[in-house]
Amino acid sequence: MPEKPSKLLPALYGGIIMGAISGTPFLSFLNCFCCAGVMLGGLMSVFFYKNNLAPNSPPLTSGDSLQLGLLAGVFGAVIGTLIHISVLAAFGNVAGAALMQILQSMEGTIPPEALEQIERSMGESTGLGALALLSTFFLSIVIDPLFGLLGGLIGYSIFKPKQQMTNVQPPMNPPAQT
Amino acid sequence: MSSPRATYLIILAGAALWCATLVIAPFLVTFPGVPGAAGRLFYSFFHPICHQLSNRSFLLFGEPLAVCSRCASVYFAFLVGTLLYPVVFDVRRPVFPHRAFLLAAVLPMAIDIGAGVFGIHEITNTTRLFTGVTFGLAAPFYVVPAAIEALQTRNAGLGHHPLLSDTNREKGPPHA
Fold first, then answer.
1. Could you give the CA distance from residue B120 to residue B99 in angstroms, rounded to a whole number?
2. Is residue A125 over pLDDT 80?
3. Residue B80 exposed, middle or buried by CB count within 10 Å (0-12, 13-18, 19+)
4. CB neighbour list of residue B167: distance below 8 Å, 6 or more residues apart
5. Which of A112, B4, B8, B113 is 20 to 30 A from B15 via CA?
6. Counting Cβ atoms within 10 Å, is residue A3 exposed (0-12), middle (13-18) or buried (19+)?
7. Nearest one of B143, B125, B107, B146 to B56, comparing CA atoms
């Protein structure tokens, strides 16, 4: 039986998706829905891995999906931080500015002190200072593998081979013929 | 700590800890004698994963939870779903519900967000709560069995390892 393909490349692809969503302005808003972008990266890494499996290679297991999600999370944290730094250096905090503009246009619905707090926290987290970037990276390296793992496990539930049924009782032996 | 029950308990403890941190943030901010920085640290931890807009969040002690109402609904429902898992299925035998149920659980949230973005209906904390709970309750029924099966496969693999299998244990090391 041929060996299973490497998990590195599918996890890297998943990590690129994860990092691109997390690091790109506006696209990163997808993560506001319970890290949907990060979970999507973990899920897609399982999809890519499943597509790499040869017909006669061992089937996809939940252990594979768990590892793929975790690994994609690590890649995603690194790639996302790199994209985040590049975008901040090139264009500044465009997404933050747009979000603040939207919030300010919703006059009356948001208390001014809350608006001030949001502005302050966005300023703290989106600066190009070493501390801000380090904290962004360390938060990502904790959160991305965690949600990537969840995405990988959900991916396994979606992409697992159909014949791989659990809890199926084997058929009864036919009665011995006399 | 490698039995299906232990795996289940680890997931349950993780979900409980995660939900506790959401509640601790507003508690620390309002609790007298605790420096405000302690609470703000928790808010900062959740900042990359949620917009944390106070008008879209549930309030506790007059302060918003560490995440918005949709995220909080998903996380608390995930905890409830994990608690319910052993009531519905046997923890020792992982069973995967059909993936259509998962898609059906995500659909209300997708419709709520989509319709809200296009101005078809107004997204409120009530719609965030119900759509979040739908997804959050369904997710553990896919995550828990997958995690348990991953562990069982790993243990089975170790069991069939030439140096660890029962047959070899009885025989002793090859060159003993």
1. 28
2. no
3. middle
4. none
5. B113
6. exposed
7. B125
**Is residue A104 a part of any domain in this protein?**
yes
Note down the domain range covering A104: 8-159
Give the pLDDT of residue B164.
38
Residue A105 lies in a domain: yes
Contact flag A61-B150 (C-beta cutoff 8 Å): yes
Structure-model confidence comparison of residues A101 and B73, the more confident one: B73
> How would DSSP label each residue in B52-78?
--GGGS-EETTEE-SS-HHHHHHHHHH
Could you tell me which chain A residue has the CA closest to the CA of B93? Answer: A167
**Does B145 contact A at CB distance below 8 Å?**
yes
Sequence letter at residue B29: V
Q: Any idea where the domains of chain B sit in the sequence?
A: 4-156
* A32, closest residue in chain B (CA to CA): B50
Q: Does A57 or B139 have the greater pLDDT score?
A: B139
Q: Which of B96, B111, B117, B122 to mutate to test the interface with A (most CBs of A within 10 A)?
A: B96
Q: Which residue positions in chain B have pLDDT lower than 50?
A: 159-176
Give the pLDDT of residue A69.
Answer: 93
- Better-predicted residue by pLDDT, A166 or B53: B53
pLDDT of residue B166: 38
pLDDT for res B170: 38
Q: Which amino acid, residue B70?
A: R
Cα distance between residue A103 and residue B115, in whole Å: 20
| Amino acid letter for position B102 | L
Residue-wise pLDDT tens digits, A2-16: 778 889 999 999 999
pTM score, whole prediction? 0.77
Determine the Cα–Cα distance for residues A23 and A88; give it in Å rounded to an integer: 10
Joined tokens for residue B126: 């009530």
Residue A164 has pLDDT above 80, yes or no: no
A114 touches chain B (CB under 8 A): yes
Domain tally for chain A? 1
